[in-house]
Amino acid sequence: MEHSFTRWIVFFILLFPVSFTVQAEAPPHAEAVFKNYAQQWTFDGSIEAVNQATVSSRVSAQVAEIFYDVNDRVEKGALILRFNDEEIKTRLWQAEANLLAEQAQLKEVQARYTEAAAEAKRINDLYQRKQVTRSALDKAEADKAATAARVNVLNAQIKARQAEVEQAKVELSYTEVRAPYAGVMTKRWIEVGEMATPGQALMSGLSLDDLRVVFTVPQKQLTEVMAAKLDVLLPTGEHLTHLDKTLIPAADTQTHSFHIRLDLPQNLNEIFPGMTTKVTAYGSEQPVLVIPKQALLKRAEVDGVYVLAQQRVVFRQLRVGTEYDDGWVEVLSGIDAGEQVITQPDRALLYLQQQHD
Fold this sequence. Notes:
CATH 2.40.50.100, 13-stranded antiparallel β-sheet, coiled coil, 31% helix, alpha+beta, 21 strands, 5 helices, 36% strand, signal, Elongation Factor Tu (Ef-tu), domain 3, 4-stranded antiparallel β-sheet, conserved putative lor/sdh protein from methanococcus maripaludis s2 fold, Membrane-fusion protein
């Protein structure tokens, strides 16, 4: 019975031939659409220490001791280097001795002035009573004036000697170089036994307590970025927002860009100066032409998608922009809204092969 039925079907097909158009099943695809997204700008930033400095010599002297080296941690006010201070101490002692001598001489002259003033008063009284000549009065007044002038000279000299003593004390204090703040030594510029001159670099260091992110913004984006919400992605993967920002109000003369600083909170783990960060600025929402991220195909340095149109698949080169967290990618040029893009690019070639077969 079955053989008879099969023969009838074969006979029917031969008697009434028909044609079948077999269409390959289209691969998964999605439409390029406009979606509202906050404007985004991403910048490369770097971490730097707020407090970083190089201490320099303020005297001409030989280095006697260095108490810290590179990578050593120091406390604020710690003695990090000491100069040989014998020569400066000698100058201080000499200045103090000169001051004492001048002060002793001043006491002696002041005593003579007291005597000269008393003698001048006595001679003046006698002169008023016509008991001494005018020349005697003039001599007494001259002795008094000369002694007063000598007192004034010694007072001036004593001030100069006091200044010499203070200067020597200051120079003596410069023979001990102390850390201006707690931090880490990063560079050593001199060795024990070397002669230093005023202004010569000695040691460099920085503080890890206060850090900040610095990034550069082009002039045309400055207004939007300063008004935008900023998000900092640290090397540890941590995101930071609501950071205090400071604009350096002077553009680079070559690039016409501005520097912005963001103060980081203290006590961040594994964050050090010199590390790089990503700073993302989120502005107001704008309609953006986007496609699913999985539809994007990268060939060498070319971005593109397979576009499905009228059962045909065509590769289209694109210029893309921001990749959003919800899985969509901004399209700057290459396709229009409403076009269908294949979301599984690896199946596009299979689809073409099926169509060809």
